[in-house]
Specification:
Layout lengths: L3 E5 L4 H13 L2 E8 L6 H16 L1 H4 L2 E8 L1 H6 L25 H16 L3 E3 L15 H15 L4 E3 L7 H23 L11 E2 L2 E2 L5 H16 L2
Parallel strand pairs: 1-2, 1-4, 2-3, 4-5
Antiparallel strand pairs: 6-7
Helix pairs in contact: 1-7, 2-7, 5-6, 7-8
Length: about 230
C-alpha cells in the first residue's frame, strides 16, 4: 500500500543514506529540502549535485527518483537564535544541549513535508534522524517522531508513515548501510558530494568528506568513519 515516499534530504550524509534506503525500498521517491537561513547553506548546493550524480551513477534508482522540492522557510531562521542560523561560537548550554539546536526544526520540516506529500500522493515520509549517535536534539528522538506521525495522520485524515531507517544506528553503521546499499560507489559519492559540517567548510578534505573537523557534526562523522574504516580493513 505504502509504495511512494518523500525523503527529507538536506544534502548531508545521514539524509543521503536515508535516500538510498528509500530508493532501494519504494517504487517512487521524491525529495524535499528546506532553506531556513542555515549557516551551512552550502548543503543546498550539495543537494542538487548529489541528486544529479546519484541519477547518473545508479540507473536502477534513477527511474524511481522523481521531483525534488525546495521550500523557503526563512522565517524559522528569523525566530531562531542558534549557532546554526547565526555567526555564533558553537557551545553547550547548562542542560548539555548544543546551541546548534534549532527549536521545532524537525517538527516544522515534517509538517511541511506532509503537506507536500499529501498533494503529491506520497504516504511515506523518510528522514535521516537518529538518537543512537547524535547531538542530543530532542526532535530527533524516536518518541517525538512516532507522536508526530500520529498527529499528522489525524490532521490530514489519512495514514502517514514516518520512516527513520538510521534511528538505531551509530555513524559507523550508517556508513555500513550505505555500503550495503550501493557499494564503494555510493560511499564515495556520499564522501565527496554531501555536506554535514555546521560551519559550511567545503575546502578542508578529510577521509570522511569535507568540513572544519572540529564542530560537533564533523566530530561525529569522523569518529563514525574511523570505526567503519577499521572494521573494513
Amino acid at each position: 500500500m505504502h509504495t511512494h515516499a518523500l525523503v527529507l534530504f538536506s544534502g548531508g550524509q545521514d539524509s543521503a543514506t536515508a535516500l538510498a534506503w528509500a530508493l532501494d525500498r519504494y517504487t517512487r521517491v521524491e525529495t524535499i529540502g528546506f532553506d531556513y537561513g542555515q549557516r551551512h547553506r552550502v548543503e543546498l548546493d550539495c543537494r542538487t549535485q548529489f541528486l544529479d550524480k546519484l541519477r547518473a551513477s545508479f540507473p536502477q534508482w534513477a527511474e524511481r527518483l522523481g521531483d525534488d522540492h525546495l521550500l523557503d522557510l526563512g522565517l524559522l531562521g528569523q525566530v531562531s537564535d542558534t549557532a546554526l542560523t547565526a555567526e555564533r561560537a558553537i557551545d553547550f548550554n547548562a542542560s548539555g544541549l548544543p546551541n546548534t539546536f534549532v527549536p521545532g526544526r524537525n517538527l516544522i520540516f515534517f509538517t511541511f513535508a506532509a503537506a507536500v506529500a499529501y498533494r503529491r500522493g506520497l504516504s511515506v515520509l523518510v528522514g535521516g534522524m537518529c538518537e543512537t549517535d547524535y547531538s542530543g536534539y530532542p526532535d530527533c528522538r524516536d518518541d517525538t517522531l512516532k507522536s508526530l506521525q500520529v498527529t499528522l495522520g489525524l490532521g490530514l485524515d489519512q495514514r502517514v508513515v514516518i520512516e527513520t531507517p538510521l534511528m538505531w544506528l551509530d555513524k559507523a553503521q550508517t556508513w555500513q548501510l550505505a555500503h550495503r546499499l550501493g557499494g564503494d560507489a555510493l560511499v564515495a559519492l556520499i564522501t565527496e558530494e554531501t555536506h554535514t559540517c555546521y560551519l559550511g567548510d567545503r575546502h578542508t578534505r578529510h577521509a570522511w568528506g569535507y568540513g572544519c573537523g572540529t564542530c560537533p557534526a564533523c566530530e561525529l562523522r569522523a569518529r563514525g568513519h574511523a570505526r567503519y574504516a577499521a572494521s573494513n580493513g
